[in-house]
Amino acid sequence: MSQLGRLALRVLLSLAGVAIVTYIAYSIIPHNPTTVGFAYLLLVLLIASMWGLVEATLASLAATLTFNFFFLPPIGKFTIADPQNWVALFSFLVTALITSRLSARVKKEALDAVDRQRDIERLYTFSRAILLIDPVEPVAKQLARKLAEVFGLRAAVLYDRRTGEIHRAGPSDFDGMEDQLRDAASQGTSFFDPEHKRLITAVRLGSEPIASFAIQGAFMQDSVLQGISNLIAIGLERARAQDLAHQVEAGRRSEQLRTTLIDAMAHEFKTPLTSIRAATTSLLSSPDQSIESRTELLEVADEEARHLQALIDDAVEMARLESDHIQVRRELTDPRDLIEDVVASLRTQIDNRPFEIHSDGSLPPLALDRRLLKLALKQVLDNALKYSPPRSPITVRLSNGAQAVNFEITDRGPGIPEQEQGRLFERFYRSPSVKNQVPGFGLGLAIANNIVQAHQGELTVNSRPGETTFRVTLPSQTPASQPPARDRRGVRP
Fold it and tell me: Any idea which fold 137-220 has?
């Protein structure tokens, strides 16, 4: 029903109410003009409080006429014989109109207060939604969607001047007006289309317009529109601040990684370089040495050169892994052969420490990137060597799992507190209890975890005081998404 139709219905109901009061006062109960006048007055007050001034005014006029016709002498005529009744009748009419006016004003103020309360609640809900925005999805798109949802709009459009993108939300189409949106965002102007109930206004950060938004389907107070504009500006600026913070953090991490790798290479390269330098110096200073002695020195230099080459390869691989795009080049590899190769590369660190390797009788060959997995296992084993007492044993166990092979590396160190175990695989994380006692940069386990995950495997830790076990679980079947593996001679299995 239209607004005019609702008004007509309320007027008819008001006149019907006057008729009912007149009938009851005239036909059913003995009528007293004073009593009847108060009855009419109460009816007018009730109508004013329920509906408004128009209905109450018409009811007042109808009540005045019926009061005159049925209850003031001469009865049955629209005339008044006693002049005092004129005063009473005028007083009744004025009282009815004033009270209806006051009642209507109170009702309107109450409705306005309810509307303001609703607007405040919606603005609060909108502000909460801004705090919970998902950083993955474009912020402007989420703001438009939240604006339409919270304020019950048929359509909402947000134009972000920084990106030049227009985001739409709501059940109705809101085509056109792109030019007005851009003008509002660049010049701070506003547009209003009363025919379609459309409004476009600028979003300002300080005095500078940074965006614009359009709404359709609701009329809002200027204060509400200003509140929405301010909240959108806060949301967009917060998103920009987060993007800047991420860029700064990425730059800091990149610089920290670069420094870490340089420090690590300088430290690791010293040992093989020292051995090579010692062998060549001995050969140059004593050219008349025996063949056996010179051969031995050349073998030392050659072995340490291979060790140095492996360190360089590992450093390059670690830098490449920082990009999180790990290319896995699979080849069939014997798990036992792989772990023995890792142990051989760490023989200097193992030194005279008790070291045992146990494996099930039959382990299936694994399709994996041998160099990457060697680097991962080396990081885990090196971690066990660094964080356990020098003479304590290290145990490596290889076992068959459910369509997987497990590599378990166990040390007899002090253990890892339970609250820290969940952060071990974060980049640059080091336990506060050991970071100043054991050298390291917090990259080894993070890189190992990335490599294992790239092989669809899992790296886990189980620790208690006196024993820590890292488990690397690798699937024994090549994932369907991976190309067929080749053996170490390049032949398809």
Answer: Beta-Lactamase (3.30.450)
